[in-house]
Amino acid sequence: MPATGWAGNVRANVAIVEDDPLVAAHVGQSVAEQDGLSLAGTAATLAEARALLDRDVDLFILDLGLPDGNGIDLIETIRARGRTDTKILVLSNLGDQATVLAAVLAGADGYLLKDLTSFNIGQQVSAALAGEAPLSPSIAAYVLRYLREQQDQARTEEDAPDLTPREFELLQLLARGHSNREAAEAMSVSRYTVADHAKAIYRKLGVSSRGEALVRAFRSGLLRP
Predict the structure, then answer these.
(1) pLDDT digits (tens), the chain, 225 positions
(2) How many Cβ atoms are within 10 Å of 162's Cβ, its own excluded?
(3) CB-based burial of residue 19 (10 Å sphere; 0-12 exposed, 13-18 middle, 19+ buried)?
(4) Which of 36, 58, 99, 218 could be bridged to 151 by S-S, CB 3.0 to 4.6 A?
């Protein structure tokens, strides 16, 4: 569990997995400057990153192109350990559709392309910890395209879960790439209410991430292109 100090008087521990020292330093500084975040450790290789799995880490900022392998392997390892509450935010130069989808389907909670002048990574981390799924615009387009293709190809796996009207409205907004904050504004509710609805959706769909929820919703016919 996060230590005292972050949202709701809880401080979140963040680990950085990045082999470029300049990028790692920039990200580390951004995390340190963001209220409520603490740097739990850094790693430049998959081997070093695996050593961090025994630490109390609430969110990993993860590059994919590492010297000793692909960061997607680490995502799979984290999820295989049953750490569904640990957030994973990919920060990478790799922006091709195949890599993006592999990371999201492996369990990444967000995917940002490296452009260190265009966003505050500390703010993106806070958003991910609050239940949002930070995605660069081109990444969101890839995910939505994939979901549409899945809907075209997939048969109905089982009866669609019974969502409330507000949960279904939120699910539609998430499918369009809305953040939790944007969805809250569209629904005229608080971000906390949106977070509660999202948790209910995940529970009813039997999933643990936004990407899994959307795949499940499209495959079951709950959402349509």
Answers:
(1) 444 334 444 689 999 999 999 999 989 998 988 889 999 999 999 999 999 998 999 999 999 999 998 898 899 889 888 777 899 999 998 888 878 888 888 888 889 888 755 567 888 888 888 888 888 877 877 777 776 666 555 444 445 678 899 998 998 888 877 778 888 999 999 989 998 999 999 888 888 777 778 777 777 777 765
(2) 9
(3) middle
(4) 218
Give the residue from 62, 76, 65, 67 showing the smallest Cα distance to 110. Answer: 62
Residue with tokens 């609050």: 130
Pick the CATH number of 143-220 from 3.30.70.240, 3.40.50.300, 1.10.10.10, 3.30.300.230: 1.10.10.10
Out of 3.40.50.2300, 1.20.210.10, 2.30.30.30, 2.60.120.20, select the CATH number for domain 12-134: 3.40.50.2300
